[in-house]
Specification:
The complex is a heterodimer of chains A (about 60) and B (about 180). Chain A has helices spanning about 5-25, 30-50, 55-60. Chain A contains three helices and no strands. Chain B has about 180 residues and is mainly α. Chain B has two domains: about 10-85, RNA polymerase sigma factor, region 2, helix turn helix motif (Rna Polymerase Sigma Factor, Chain: A, Orthogonal Bundle), CATH 1.10.1740; about 90-175, Arc Repressor Mutant, subunit A (Orthogonal Bundle). The N and C termini of chain B lie far apart (about 45 Å). Mean pLDDT of chain B is about 75; it is low at about 75-100 and about 180-185. Classes of the chains: A mainly alpha (about 60), B mainly alpha (about 180). The interface of A and B includes residues 14, 34, 35, 38 and 59 of A.
């Protein structure tokens, strides 16, 4: 009922356009802000915990 | 022994920004949301199940951040860039094509849940099942949200089948992406 023939065609048009928009956004260059943040988080963690991920993993797997 | 799954996060940054932008339609809000989500993902990596879809996991964090912020704001934040009131700078339609302003209004009329479902399933390539998982609802709910989103868009734009075929890429581009440039500029 929700999917009449018209709806299907309209849906296709809407989705096709959304996909192109999405692809366009995906192609954008990511600001340094985010890669810097990830590097910062890692650095911070290594300073605090020494081992970082491995240590956190062991801790969580015990539960 | 696999390495730190967090090494993979960087690969999903473009997708995270795209999804955040789809939800907020405001570049400043979107980037703040990505930033918050990155910190959450980093510290909650133990909740990620290795071998599962990391993008879906990150998107789940993003949407939770978005809805949590929305609750705090006590209203929908989706029109923060003034989508509804933005000046209509495009040329008027002269051949029956959809007007950009109409499309903008239509897109803004979708509620967050409908827009989210449409972007996840229609644009990002997630299955109904994945989207349902991410949104914490039944598969049928996602299906009905995407169907309603499409139907609502079509209805709001008085989009007949013929008109649908004339819908230009540029119109859609501007609807979802245009706001960002005005916010950034």
């Amino acid at each position: 009922m929700a999917e009449t023939r018209d709806n299907t065609k309209q849906a296709q048009v809407i989705d096709d356009n959304l996909k192109r928009v999405y692809q366009d956004m995906l192609n954008e260059e990511v600001p340094d802000r985010f890669t810097n943040l990830l590097a910062q988080l890692r650095e911070q963690e290594q300073q605090e915990h020494g081992q970082g991920y491995a240590e956190a993993q062991n801790r969580d797997e015990t539960s | 022994m696999a390495g730190d799954p967090r090494d993979e996060i960087v690969e999903h940054l473009p997708a995270m920004r795209a999804f955040a932008l789809s939800l907020t339609r405001n570049s400043a809000l979107a980037d703040d949301m990505v930033q918050d989500s990155l910190v959450k993902a980093w510290t909650k990596i133990h909740t990620f199940e290795p071998g599962t879809n990391m993008r879906a996991w990150l998107f789940t964090i993003l949407r939770n951040t978005y809805y949590s912020n929305r609750r705090k704001a006590g209203r929908e934040v989706s029109d923060a860039d003034g989508l509804m009131t933005e000046g209509l700078s495009e040329k008027p339609a002269h051949d029956g094509r959809l007007q950009l302003s109409d499309f903008r209004r239509a897109f803004a009329e979708l509620n967050d849940e409908q827009r989210e479902a449409l972007v996840l399933v229609g644009a990002s390539g997630f299955s109904y099942e994945e989207a349902a998982d991410m949104c914490g609802v039944a598969v049928g709910t996602i299906k009905s949200r995407t169907n309603r989103a499409r139907a609502r868009l079509a209805q709001l734009m008085h989009l007949t089948e013929d008109e649908a075929l004339e819908m230009t890429d540029s119109a859609t581009m501007a609807v979802v992406a245009g706001n960002r440039s005005s916010a950034a500029g």
